[in-house]
Amino acid sequence: MDAVVARRGATTPTVIDVPRPEPGPGEALVRTLRVGVDGTDREVLAGTHGGFPDDEDYLILGHEAVGVVVDPNGTSLTAGDIVVPTVRRLPATGTNDYFERGQADMAPPSMCRERGIDGAHGFMAEYFTSPAETLVEIPESLAPLGFLVEPVSISEKAIEHASASRSAFDWQPESALVLGNGPLGLVTLAMLDGYDRTYCVGRRDRPDPTIDIIERLGATYVDSRETPVESFPTVHEPADFVYEATGHAKHAIETVAALAPGGVGALLGVPESWAFEVDGGDFHKDMVMNNKALVGSVNSSAAHFRAAADRLTGFPTWFTEALVTDVVGVEAAAEAFANDERTIKTAVEFDTL
Amino acid sequence: MDAVVARRGATTPTVIDVPRPEPGPGEALVRTLRVGVDGTDREVLAGTHGGFPDDEDYLILGHEAVGVVVDPNGTSLTAGDIVVPTVRRLPATGTNDYFERGQADMAPPSMCRERGIDGAHGFMAEYFTSPAETLVEIPESLAPLGFLVEPVSISEKAIEHASASRSAFDWQPESALVLGNGPLGLVTLAMLDGYDRTYCVGRRDRPDPTIDIIERLGATYVDSRETPVESFPTVHEPADFVYEATGHAKHAIETVAALAPGGVGALLGVPESWAFEVDGGDFHKDMVMNNKALVGSVNSSAAHFRAAADRLTGFPTWFTEALVTDVVGVEAAAEAFANDERTIKTAVEFDTL
């Protein structure tokens, strides 16, 4: 079958022929419909994130998949179920407390593998197998957009953890700032419809399709070339919630400065090592005297996938239509990994219902 | 009546004669029993924290008080009630959302005054008045230690907020690290009796009374001159919970490095501005990839005071006896502000039951 892979030493994806997988005990066989592409996939291709399966010279890409169960293989699934696979799997060393407790999403990198990212093949192939408990059923009507369930679930978790961190008091957030106008930032902005005022930071000139989406969502576009994040609270307002989705290393510190008293920042981006000077005294004092909070968040659980499927059904059609700029066939898979200013969210389509 | 005050320009406390306060509408008159001294009081005296009431050249010190209601003045209190006052009061500008919602402890510094600290007289006098709703009743048996309710309440809030930030998953913390062996650090260590393994960082040589307390509480003393906080996780173990009670500016960053995956750090200390180099990329990435959290916490609410009174009754007698190294009369008040290696927690006694 066709599979889109990263090869050791190559920075562009390749389509190769690999054997169709056979489901093992407890696993179902899934026919792939679509697989989304995100910044992590590009980092995997660039070699800056994740890694190959042991003893293999290629990694099947893709962690944002939707497919149809073709062989339930004795599991509780039924042929024809539309499913989205979670991403984390047991490490080579076997099980551990995180998996035993059903909290694989809270495991450190050394205690899990991530399909399509780190140490385990992904879903960007005509078929994949996966343990039944990692396959989250979604309504058939969501199948065309099912590849968005995983990225939305990432924000479901981050927002849940951020809200939890403010649950010890009667938090009444009104303003939210999203750092980053990539697909994760835009999806998150669409999820923050309970906020009175939302802002989204980017570095793009108008006309730009992401700015159009930001403004159609009722948010204010903030060009960080004109208004650096550290100036945001004075130019606009301190934000009750800040969501960091760029991986710019200085944002962890700047997020706190941009927060209103009692606010919380969620960190999602993954920067490289970078040493620079900060006023650590001001950062520390601001955290304390203004009761601020920060949460780092990565990956998500099956519960977040289910919440994401619900969330997706509530997104306006214009939004998902504007967000998904390309769905390409497997023969054009490399195009789905391109990242120009016209591209927002892309997917590779293997089959349809 | 006698009052222990900070005067503008002076860095040692003075006892002066001031008029006995008259309770206004909704206020009760309280005869002071004891008032504790902490690091914040020393910062107020040093002029590095808080400020004088408008148009006054002195500030009555003290925010850790216990007293007896002598004139309920038509409030719901009864003469003879043992009470502990909360610290925050309305700012000069009048009420605001934080006070309206009963969340004065979440207000930023500009939206509150703090008795004995910032802009309002404290409790270190023979009598004080306070609105009835700011006076938390405690059992008469707790009266001698009632001055510990406020500092314990500070940690009740911080621990509550830290736990809340991990409430979105099944957090099962086992190890805790307290940065600082001052009275707040030691009190917090005594509160962490649900942890399997606890550690407390100080910079003292043996023999030392704080090290004795740390070890009698079953915790491991960590000398930061030998084991800097950044080395703590490799020398000992990453901690599920880190409590920062020194105000050392680098600790905000180092706290995150000391955390186990899924852990949370509570920041309590209040450093001055201090710029230094940090690997902001590693800090940011560690927060994200290991699902770590930070909460800043200051002040506390009446609910935290009530929890603190319950907590105090559970402390072993040996602990509070070892913790409170001096209770002095008002004539020797200056001694209570001394801070040598023999001193842990001190109080000024105005009267007894």
CATH structural fold name of the largest domain in chain A: Quinone Oxidoreductase, Chain A, domain 1
- The CATH homologous superfamily of the largest domain in chain A is termed Medium-chain alcohol dehydrogenases, catalytic domain
N-to-C terminal Cα separation of chain A, in Å?
18 Å
Low-confidence stretches of chain A: none
Strand content of chain A: 25-35%
Number of strands of chain A: 20
Give the chain pair forming the largest contact, with residue counts.
A-B, 60 and 60 residues
Shape of chain A: globular
Broad CATH class of the largest domain in chain A? Alpha Beta
Give me the oligomer status. homodimer
* Radius of gyration of chain A (Å): 20 Å
The structural class of chain A is: alpha/beta
Main sheet attributes: strand count, strand direction, barrel closure of chain A: 7 strands, mixed
> Mean pLDDT of chain A, as a whole number?
97
Please give the domain count of chain A: 2
CATH architecture of the largest domain in chain A: Alpha-Beta Complex
Helical amount of chain A = 25-40%
Care to describe what's here?
- Chain A is an alpha/beta fold.
- Chain A has two domains: 2-137 and 316-349, Medium-chain alcohol dehydrogenases, catalytic domain (Quinone Oxidoreductase, Chain A, domain 1), CATH 3.90.180.10; 154-296, NAD(P)-binding Rossmann-like Domain (Rossmann fold, 3-Layer(aba) Sandwich), CATH 3.40.50.
- Chain A is built from eleven helices and 20 strands.
- The first copy, chain A, has helices at residues 39-46, 97-100, 149-165, 183-191, 209-216, 232-235, 251-258, 280-289, 302-314, 317-323, 333-336; strands at residues 2-7, 14-17, 27-37, 58-60, 64-71, 82-85, 88-89, 113-115, 119-120, 127-131, 135-137, 175-179, 197-202, 220-223, 239-244, 259-267, 275-279, 293-296, 324-329, 345-349.
- In chain A, strands 3, 5, 6, 10, 11, 19 and 20 form a seven-stranded mixed β-sheet that branches. A six-stranded parallel β-sheet of chain A has the order 14-13-12-15-16-18.
- In chain A, strand 13 (197-202), helix 5 and strand 14 form a beta-alpha-beta unit.
- In chain A, helix 3 (149-165) packs across helix 9 (302-314).
- The model of chain A has no long low-confidence stretch (mean pLDDT 97).
- Chains A and B meet through helix 3, helix 7, strand 16, strand 17 and helix 8 of A and helix 3, helix 7, strand 16, strand 17 and helix 8 of B.
- Strand 18 (293-296) of chain A pairs antiparallel with strand 18 (293-296) of chain B.
